[in-house]
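Allow me, if you will, to draw on your knowledge of protein folds for a short while. I have a record of one protein: its chain in single-letter code and its fold written as discrete structure tokens. Kindly check, if you would, that the fold set down in the tokens agrees with what the sequence suggests. Thank you for your consideration; the sequence and its tokens are set out here:
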Amino acid sequence: MRTLLLILFGVVIGVATLGAVWATVSNTPDDPDGAVDVRIVLERLPDGRVEAGLQQREVEGEWGETLMPEHRFLPPDAELNLALHSSVMVVDTDSRYEIVEQDYADYLFQSGQEIAEGFHERFGGSEDAPKMICIDDLNDRGIERLCDGFASAYAGPLQRLAVTDYDAFREELETILLEDRELRALFTTSVATAQIVDDAREATRRYVRWTYWIELVDPHLPDPDQLYCVISHGSDEDLFWGLSAETSVAAAGALGINMRNEVYASGVEQAAAIRRCTADGAVAIATTLAEPEALQSAVQEALAAGVPVISFNSGAEEAAEVGAALHISLDDYEAGRIAGDEFNARGVEGRILCVIHEPANQGLHDRCDGLEASFSGTVERWSMNDRETTVSELHERLSVGDVDGVIGLSSSIGVEVRSAIFQYDRRLPAATFGFSRTIAEYVSDGRLMFAIFDHPEIQSYLAAVGALFTERLRIDPASYFNGAQMLITPTIVNAEQMERLLETLYD
């Protein structure tokens, strides 16, 4: 996030030198606090007034244009011994960008040194190191620090080639390979120049040793105005999505990116939100796929516009088909299977009600599928007609008397399951997915047998990171990830573990 420096400078009578730099507020360029160099500029005008402005030192070390506050003139008849102040100015220091860029530059320099040492080993030591060329691809800002580090450590003769035009570089390199018989090795700082080196070696039949540097991820921070979108399905009534949105915002702040976080009740609304993000120039989108068919065309439109898309939470099976480059979620099927094993281990038999609070959500059906696969009894999928009347509807279903256990598929539903069982006035084994203070208390005191955490915070944080990472890739993310999935394998959380969590929650 940018650091804003408010400058309020005073102009006093009796300035000795006008039309030149009057003062400089300065810190060293590598100041860890990200301070910025500024200086005040004063100029006497033909009418006798003195005009004041401010200059800021740019990242490259040059002074930028003079910034002019609204109130910046000292009249020739100003009162003596009275300080006059300009209007407030805001100077964007971009210190975070400078710090990250410097840290990466240091890494490149050190890496260049290590590569030089590697060539020493190839040539049997540094004493008789032969002539080499280090190729700077200046189309990648800052990459020249690799050759700086290489030059500082390589013991033999070293020539550096600066590349901006690839065609011209190809011709120059082929000429060098044909004519310079002392040249023994090459180091190139990009994949683009590496390909040219490979071609030139083949064209000239001069097979000198060589290696190259590959950067799959753009190391520079994204522009703060670039838009990233995290779009999900969900309900305001469900704590899962409250925690999810909260975590996405926290992730965006930590990453320093401009992120739009939106939650919608239907796939149609979600698709419209994805289209808005695309139209607004989003550079990457993360979305859930609870209703993949409703979202597929919107995702495809984003991809056609060059916007990479990843998915999280629901939709693991459909993610690749819809077009998501990467999917991040709980392993819903495995989670259901683990729940079934736990019911078996606790001696539950008969019929278990698997409460699906979002009937169109494929991920919830996957949990019931896993439960069906492992539970030794029968699994009934049950959905309420109205979320507002979940407790009364579930109580009515339990009153039939043929249900031997219940599992809710979110923390909010878990609480309502417990309320319905309490009204049923019969001890009935129950469990839930999700985490909340109430769920932790219910499990710790035995009102619920166990919980399986669905981790909205992990999924949402990684979704924000994944959107940034996908956009920063310098290689096609859809082909590179190839529909890869990051699936969280859940575990059973029992009463003792919940008690420990409650203690830390209240600390």
The longest helix spans residues 95-122.
